[in-house]
Amino acid sequence: MTTLVTTITETLRYRGNIGQWSWVLHRVSGLGVVFFLTLHVIDTSWAFFYPELYVHAIAVYQTPLFTIGEFGLVAAVVYHALNGLRIIMFDYRPKWWKHQSQAALLVLGLTIMLLVPVFVGMFGHVLAFYNEPDRQTLGLVDVIVSQLPFVAGIGGAAILAVIASFAAGMFLQDTAANATLKRGSSFERFWWSFMRVSGVLIVPLVFGHLAMMHVIQGVFDITAQGTTVVGTTAVNLSGTSVEFVANRWNFLFAGVAIWRFYDFALLALVVAHGFNGLRYVLTDYLMDRPLFRRAAVYFCVMGASVLLILGGLALLNTIDSSAIEIARAEAAILYSE
Ligand code: HEM
Ligand code: HEM
Asked: Model pTM?
């Protein structure tokens, strides 16, 4: 914790150079996206497990607070992706290092250039929604209360990780610790390469996903009745978010459920990349606290496993007409409460 505070205060005090700022921005944007991803994959899995909860989750995405967050999220993904590509390029071309501050500035410039048209597109959807005479959104209290189970879940996982780390600390023998150390370097080399390969693969997947969910159709169109669902030929007849997801996951192109495969690849790569990144950050700040350092690793493994299992199971199952009926009934009472 002290190291975290020192990182921020020293960067501010010395008005760090562009390299230092881009490191901080890369870290903060990566962490922000991991946090969103945790809520998002759990929420999305409700489309199959608890359709009524998914209706509520998308209604939360359509509130002013989340709309602001959505702009921040897109900015974070775009900056992190472009800066990640810069890091990868310099890792493999160390002789270009002398140009690294210009490259960091170029990344900032490209991020802004890319965000301007994207934000204009996104803003168009927001304006269209707020110009509708019968638009409805949830209140702030409702939004905050709906996120409390996540806070409790994350807190509970952290406590569990500390208990597990304490127990492991009592049973771990020196020999086991030494074996881990020896294994350590090849293990870390694997993850170093994985972060780079996965980063490159994630770029088209996550940019494609965001283009579909923010620019081509916005977050508000997920519940637009009678519209053709992006990437499919199916129409969202009930105008529920559950039918939107069902239409995408059940859509067949040449007999293949393409969006399920797409989401599988996205899920596996972003979860492994994001939670390994979270492990880097947490263990970085807990170097001198072995109990909490080990707990941080357990916490990341737990988080990644929960998302892979929940997200994977939702993708393997089929959202049927009864789930859409439940969603329709829930949507009808959502704003009348
Ligand atoms: C869009 C394409 C992406 C690219 C090109 C990319 C690239 C990178 C690279 C090169 C690193 C540095 C790895 C290292 O230090 O060894 C990194 C770290 C990280 N990434 Fe990504 N990434 C991408 C997407 C994501 C996403 C979607 C998330 C969140 C789910 C994420 C979260 C993180 C985190 C938390 C770190 C650790 C930051 C740190 O150590 O300061 N990244 N990324
Ligand atoms: C507010 C922004 C976003 C919205 C509205 C959104 C919307 C959706 C929707 C409707 C689905 C359901 C399946 C589908 O239609 O393909 C989905 C699935 C998914 N999204 Fe997003 N998305 C957003 C941002 C992101 C970001 C930034 C990431 C990655 C970092 C991401 C990763 C995923 C993954 C992995 C799945 C599959 C989840 C599962 O298997 O349960 N999404 N998203």
From this structure: 0.92
